[in-house]
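Thread: quick sanity check before group meeting

JM: Hey all, I'm pulling together slides for Thursday and realized we never actually wrote out the predicted structure for the chain we discussed last week. Dropping the sequence here so it's in one place. If anyone has concerns about the input, flag it before I start.
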Amino acid sequence: MTDVYDPTLGELVTANPAAARLLDGLGLDYCCHGDRTLSQACTAAGLTSADVIASLNDLDHDDDETWTTLDAPGLAEHIVATHHRYLWEELPRLEELSDKVERVHGAGHPELADVRELVAAIRADLEPHLLKEERVLFPAIAALAQGQTEFAFGSVANPIRMMLLEHDRAGELLTRLRVATNDYTPPADGCTSYRTLYERLTALELDTHVHIHKENHVLFPAALTLAEG
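JM (edit): ok, ran it. Output follows.
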């Protein structure tokens, strides 16, 4: 009897990063819950696995696959150069833009107060998180690759455990932001700034989901394997 093809969501995105956008659009969480199999996630979402697989098979293969071949220190460097840099630049701009749009349109769209508060909360959560990775965890991963086994914080599993919890928090905030923005759908009377805000929030969600996926399902397991010797 042939085994039924039932990869995890994380495995799907690692095999073809282009799957991230499709899964996001279907509401299938491949970052914080990427350990679920496709059938489990589809059942929970009321989708048919065969239909999702067909859509995945129709995808072009993503050109940006270089990160899938990197060792743990190299992947950490890639994450900093790609995703951390994006967040350091984009989060302050998004907070400023969400303030502006709420001031102009808030009277007619009271949900914008929630959007503004959520953007500020995401920034407040993610910026310290980035610092902890850049100053503590990622240097430790590089040291592990060089043979170091002892750290002031104990096992590398300790900061990884904390990062996973913080990833869950970021995922929850992004879910709330999607709800508050009606799936990032601007109203008919939304000005250019309004539409731009929602477009950039959509991009933020996708990039952060891919970012978390790379850490949760590729980098962190590789670091734990290094720690085990």
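AS: nice. The radius of gyration is 19 Å. The chain is about 70% helix and 0% strand.
JM: adding both to the slides.
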